Automatic annotation (TrEMBL):
Positions with a binding annotation for NAD(+): D35, A36, D37, Y38, D39, S84, L85, E115, R138, E175, K292, K316
Name assigned to this protein: DNA ligase
UniProt keyword terms in alphabetical order: DNA damage, DNA repair, DNA replication, Ligase, Magnesium, Manganese, Metal-binding, NAD, Zinc
Gene name, Swiss-Prot/TrEMBL: ligA
Record lineage: Bacteria, Pseudomonadati, Pseudomonadota, Gammaproteobacteria, Lysobacterales
BRCT domain location: 702-783
Keyword Cell division listed: no
One Pfam family this sequence matches: OB_DNA_ligase
Length: 783
């Protein structure tokens, strides 16, 4: 076979596979191949066509994107006008619509094709001999704009019809829209990258189709549903609209899975309510449903009035957007400490409900919208979702308003509000003392992998907190039997669920005794569990274990300056700052004091690992503290001139210059030291250096294990112990247990039915342990 023939065959195969993948994804909602395989095939096709441009065809998947901007849109005259629909806003208006058809046609039991009314942009697609040749917007109904190049970028629109027996000319009418999940993801990415944020899915779809550069349209997550036809030449279509939709689906067009056929007025109203009930769960925006007389003969007899058909109508849902005035901007602290700004506004009816509050999501959203007290705003409410502010009507803004800014401290507990770099959400750092976070903090503290207080479930946590028995996690350790029984009685009375045994005076106490026993049992715990139980943002089990392993002592950890936490492997600046913010809050430190005073004991305190001391001296401490203008070179000059932290604190500024610092650096250091908080961090760092200097050789041996510095991966099922137990034993011997295999993996433990991780290990030549070798190793290294 000649080489060119072989390449042409491969190109045809790739096109067929890609077209089939698009059809299955967009029409059948049944993806056949992973995205990575689709991308690989598309890339191969693109490379083959680039090498053989004579084999490129207009309907190739590669031709969806790449045309240059035209500079303007040509006008397209619709062969059959794209008419608007009349609207119904009540059941009565729908009843009038049905009655008029019944009277004109002289029959009842009418069948209607019904479908959601997508909130997108109506378009017309023209196909000649099965090939897409032109696409246009609705425009004024008679004339639209030629947006063919942009429509070609939408994968849901077939460039070549599937199947057979197509009309010679076929015009398909439908809606281009932006799926809600894709709209949200696009805006989130735009916020991160500093791009333009879309106002709403409908505007996003309309604006995307009117981009003069099709390459811009290709970057927007657009989709398409067909809902009807225009001009048809060369074939006879079915007798009903619903059958035509089925034919369109066979030819490769996506049709809404919510489309249906119902009978009579009651069928229409039942459908309207069913779609209304699931409206908020649909993956796209709708503003109503559309009813169409299903049979074409009846449609022709009904005809048209003005610019709308008599045989179809849109039954609209209540308006979801309204205008109102902002009275104030407040913040709410959630169960996890996330701080959400919201507006108190003049009451307004939205979606059939009177609302006075709307969310602003986060500080970035407030800044983007520039919402201020006194502003007139557009708010949106979708079903049961909390209303949100979508736009400010700037032209109605009162004079003298000022931009809003996030408060610096929590309105509930007074702790500092913090936002990590790159994050949109502000959080209250008073995790253990903030009343808004109390239930979440207690639930986490008592969880199995934390303090493991068996029996302290969500219902008891709610009652203990709501009824005032527990103000912080430390209060769990002062509960008495009388407290629990009284709490249970009050909770049952509040919920009107008082058992007969309580009403008759026979109070069951075993549950309370068991709970007190579980609380008492939790008093003896490990440092790893204790740190995890505190609920510090970003400190999960593995980070808690690393902190416990490297520092070994709660008293050392709780008084360290935050930069020194970066000395622990896998703890970066974001996590280190989070730990520091938590420990900087006096309330959190007080709760730790209370826990220790009420008998909570760390059973595995040990000296810090010698690795922590390696490379840590006064110079590196100064660099870690991120003092302005103090580079590593300047830090080493200071360390050479001053023997200790205290000597540095006591030195006058001119001594810094004598040590070799430029005048501006010496001034920056002096200014930094004048801040009591900053100076306190330096003192804490000095204390840590002294503590680390005291490590003895014996302590060094204790702090290291036989697997120190090695990385293990577990895969498959082990028969003698659980995956968690195996992980804990390996970590106790110094190993880091990872979830993925790489060149840095030291060994892989493979149990029964080991999968892709074992394959990857064999491919990379990583050492493989079976369960027998693991158990033998563990037995030989028992404490």
């Amino acid at each position: 076979m000649p080489k060119t023939t072989h390449i042409a065959t491969r190109i045809a195969e790739l096109r067929a596979q890609l077209d089939d993948a698009n059809y299955r994804y967009h029409v059948l909602d049944d993806p056949a191949i992973p995205d990575a395989d689709y991308d690989r095939m598309l890339r191969e096709l693109d490379e083959l066509e680039a090498a053989h441009p004579e084999l490129i065809t207009a309907d190739s998947p590669t031709q969806r994107v790449g045309a240059v901007p035209t500079g303007s849109f040509a006008q397209v005259r619709h062969a059959i006008p794209m008419l608007s629909l009349g609207n119904a806003f009540s059941d009565e208006e729908v009843a009038v619509f049905v009655r008029k058809i019944e009277e004109r046609l002289g029959r009842d039991a009418l069948a209607f094709s019904v479908e959601p009314k997508l909130d997108g942009l109506a378009i017309s697609l023209r196909y000649e001999d099965g090939r897409f040749v032109q696409g246009a917007t609705r425009g004024d109904g008679a004339t639209g704009e030629d947006v063919t190049a942009n429509l070609r970028t939408i994968k849901a629109i077939p460039l070549q019809l599937r199947g057979k027996d197509w009309p010679r000319v076929l015009e398909v009418r439908g809606e281009v829209y932006m799926p809600l999940a894709a709209f949200k993801a696009y805006n989130e990415r735009a916020l991160v990258e500093g791009g333009k944020v879309l106002a709403n899915p409908r505007n996003g779809a309309a604006g995307s189709l009117r981009q003069l550069d099709p390459r811009m349209t290709a970057q927007r997550p657009l989709a398409f549903y067909a809902y009807g036809i225009g001009l048809v030449e060369g074939v006879e279509l079915p007798e009903t609209h619903s059958q035509t939709l089925g034919r369109l689906r066979q030819w490769g067009f996506p049709v809404s899975g919510e489309s249906d056929v119902v009978e009579g007025l009651q069928g229409l109203l039942d459908y309207y309510r069913a779609i209304g009930d699931k409206r908020d769960r649909l993956p796209f925006d709708i503003d109503g449903v559309v009813y169409k007389l299903d049979d074409y003969e009846g449609q022709a007899e009904m005809g048209f009035v003005s610019r709308a058909p008599r045989w179809a109508i849109a039954h609209k849902f209540p308006a979801q957007e309204q205008m109102t005035v902002v009275e104030s901007i407040e913040v709410n602290v959630g169960r996890t400490g996330a701080v959400t700004p919201w507006v108190l506004m003049q009451p307004v009816q939205v979606g059939g409900v009177t609302v006075t509050r709307a969310t602003l999501h986060n500080a970035d959203q407030v800044a983007r919208l520039d919402v201020r007290n006194g502003d007139t705003v557009i708010i949106r409410r979708a079903g049961d979702v909390i209303p949100e502010v979508v736009r400010v009507v700037v032209e109605k803004r009162p004079a003298g308003t000022r931009p809003w800014s996030m408060p610096s401290h929590c309105p509930v507990c007074g702790s500092e509000l913090v936002r990590e770099e790159g994050e949109a959400v502000w959080r209250c750092s008073g995790e253990l003392t903030c009343a808004a976070q109390r239930k979440e903090a207690i639930g986490h503290f008592a969880s199995r992998r934390a303090m493991d207080i068996e029996g302290l479930g969500e219902r008891f946590i709610e009652s203990l907190s709501d009824l005032g028995y527990v103000q912080s996690v430390a209060d769990l350790y002062k509960l008495t039997l009388d407290d629990l029984l009284e709490m249970k009685r009050r909770a049952d009375e509040r919920d009107d669920t008082t058992p007969e045994t309580v009403k008759s005076g026979k109070v069951a106490t075993r549950w309370a005794e068991n709970l007190l026993e579980a609380i008492d049992h939790s008093r003896n715990t490990t440092l790893e569990r204790f740190l995890y139980a505190l609920g510090i943002q970003h400190v999960g089990e593995s980070t808690a274990k690393a902190l416990a392993t490297w520092f070994g002592d709660l008293e050392l950890i709780r008084h360290l300056p935050w930069p020194l936490f970066k000395r622990v492997p896998d703890v970066g600046g974001e996590v280190a700052r989070s730990i520091g913010h938590f420990l900087d809050q006096a309330g959190n430190q007080q709760v730790i004091d209370d826990l220790l005073a009420r008998g909570v004991t760390i059973t595995d305190t040990h000296p810090p690992t010698p690795k922590l001391r390696d490379g840590l001296n006064l110079a590196t401490l100064l660099v870690d503290l991120e003092i302005p203008k103090v580079t590593r070179v300047r830090a080493e000059q200071l360390a050479s001139a001053f023997p200790s932290v205290q000597a540095l604190l006591d030195a006058p500024k001119h001594n810094f210059v004598s040590a070799g610092l430029p005048a501006d650096t010496a001034q920056a250091l002096a200014d930094w030291l004048e801040d009591e908080t900053q100076a306190g961090q330096l003192v804490a760092g000095g204390d840590a250096l002294a503590r680390l200097d005291a490590i003895t050789p014996a302590a060094a041996e204790v702090a290291q294990g036989p697997l120190d510095g090695q990385t293990a991966v577990l895969t498959g099922t082990l028969s003698a112990l659980s995956r968690d137990e195996a992980k804990a034993k390996l970590e106790a011997l110094g190993a880091k247990v990872s979830g993925s295999v790489s060149k840095k993996t030291s060994f892989v433990v493979a149990g029964e039915a080991a999968g892709s991780k074992l394959d990857k290990a064999q491919e990379l030549g990583v050492e493989i342990w079976d369960e027998e070798k693991l158990l033998s190793f563990l037995a030989g290294h028992e404490p």
